[in-house]
Amino acid sequence: MTRSKGSMKRILVGALTAAVIIYCAAGIDYSGAASFSPKLALDVFQGLLKPEWGYFYDGSGEDLISLLLLTIGIAFLGTAIATVLAIPLALVSAANLWKGHTLVPRIGKLVCNVLRAFPELVYAIIFVKIVGPGPFAGVMAIGVHQIGMLGKLYTEEMEAMDEGPVEAMMAVGANFWQSLFFARVPQLMPIYTTLSLNHFEIAVRSASTLGLVGAGGIGAPLIFAIQARGWAKVSIILLGVIVTVFLIDMLAGVIRKKLR
Amino acid sequence: MKIKDTVHYDWYKKVLIFLVILAGIVASAVVTEADFLEVMQNRKQMYLFLEKFMKPDFAYIPKILGPMMMTLKMSVTGTVLGVLFAVPIAFLATEVVTSNKAVTFVVRFILDVVRTIPNLLLAALMVAIVGIGEFTGVLTIAVFTFGLVSQLIYESIETIDFGPIEAAQAVGANKIQTAVWAVWPQVMSQIAGYTFYALEINVRASTVLGYVGAGGIGVMLNSSLALLQYGRVSIIILVILGVVAVVDFVSETIRRKLR
Fold first, then answer.
1. Per-residue model confidence as pLDDT tens digits over A143-200
2. Domain identity same for B111 and B189
3. Are A184 and A138 in contact (CB under 8 A)?
4. C-alpha span between B68 and B88 (Å, rounded)
5. Which residues from chain B sit within 8 angstroms of residue A234, using beta carbons?
6. Is the pLDDT of residue B242 over 50?
7. What is the pTM of this model?
8. In the 8-state DSSP scheme, what is residue A173?
9. Is A41 among the domain residues?
10. How many domains does one find in chain A?
């Protein structure tokens, strides 16, 4: 709590931040907001309040329940693939496992960053081209994108971990793999599981948007409904997505609490 | 590290969990009709795509710099707006601050609902309600940031040191005073960190928001994809990549300093 010490610097940083924010906020075209009509918005909300329950389940395989299950499946498989492949990537890119070699972890991190940099939607478009439209394209898109995401997070956790147990094991003659499995894995396991769970939650959300480009799941009917301004259908689908994500978040929360 | 942290402890339970996960994977593979051989068989398509993709149309760069800047501006404005709303709400979402289970539950429930809406769908909804434009993108990013950051903030509030709170309460501070003088100083730097983290995510996310009409570089991406102009797609993605890398670098440097 040394307020006076760096107060000049503080003011400078604050002023700079404020300047950047004002510059950004001023540069945006707000004319879109002018065309906003409260009546239209009211219409939307009124439509959203009347969900079309008939869409919930009609046994055709194109109803809400089956598409939601499909969406969860896409997310689960995608995250599972990503988790399995992100671990070796993290081993490559964690700097503390490569003492003396700075090149290898750098390459690993570069791979993570490149994989991460493409939006999932772009991956989805590419995979729709490769495997054809359908849920599997969504699985691949989420999988590939999340390898980068999880790889980065796993690496960060690996680098931030407590080296004490590893050093202790090394001191009594353990080799790299022994210290990996008996000192690093037990320490990182709960964090990695939490991260994967987190990304499963994120994946469910993205899986529900990938339908936009034909990669399966609940996204396609939702976008069609929004474009057709069929708010009753939008409402039931959004409700379905929210409830699903909510339940999964709760489940993940329970698992996370157990991990602690 | 305790005995229960080792690999061998309760191994049968771990095997069971593993089997459950495996069953989940198999079930998902069945419903999504996963066929990894198909990826291999159709790799020609991928090569074809990559071949066009590998020839970025560099002449297109001047045309995308404007929208890219706009995307950045949208992200910054949206993030700041979102965090501004997130801080007070996050304080309400912890029992540490409110010491009231009902308020915490209701606020968290609302936050959970906000967070569950994927940002692209949020953008599509906003476009339908507010109309096409950059402002819609800002609103979408703000709502998304609000959901993301408020959760991070309330989770970090729950892990703070309770000493200062007790001390503040012991000398008769009310709830607002406790929040401002005992909780805020402990989470301030973390909130700043989360803001930059959110900015990183938002820059990435906002690059595709234009896909549904919410302004920025996504509009260009969408039109190039629709016209099968892969050279343009690749240069757009390259520019996005560069900008995301710069934003990540700046934000990570700042976050490291904050720690």
1. 999 999 899 999 988 888 888 888 888 888 888 888 888 888 888 888 888 888 888 9
2. yes
3. no
4. 32
5. 125
6. yes
7. 0.76
8. T
9. no
10. 1
How many structural domains comprise chain B? 2
Are B253 and B196 contained in the same domain?
yes
Query: Using the 8-state DSSP alphabet, how is residue B8 labeled?
Result: S
Q: What is the DSSP letter of B120?
A: H
- Written as six digits, the tokens of A129 are 């081209």
CB contact under 8 A, B32 and A216: yes
Q: How far is residue A61's CA from residue B82's CA, in Å, rounded to a whole number?
A: 38
Give the span between the Cα atoms of A256 and B10, in whole angstroms.
Answer: 18
Q: Which residue has the tokens 């399995």?
A: A84
B104 to chain A nearest CA, in Å? 16
Which residue type is seen at B180?
V
Q: Are residues B149 and B24 in the same domain?
A: no
pLDDT digit string (tens) for B174-198? 888 888 888 888 888 888 888 888 8
Question: Is residue B207 within 8 Å of B72, Cβ to Cβ?
Answer: no
Q: Do B118 and A138 touch (CB under 8 A)?
A: no
For B105-150, the pLDDT digits (tens) are: 888 888 878 887 877 888 888 887 887 778 888 888 999 899 888 8
Q: Are residues B47 and B93 in the same domain?
A: no
Which site among B39, B70, B83, B116 would you substitute to test the A interface, given the most A Cβ atoms closer than 10 Å to its Cβ? B116
> Do B76 and B204 reside in the same domain of the chain?
yes
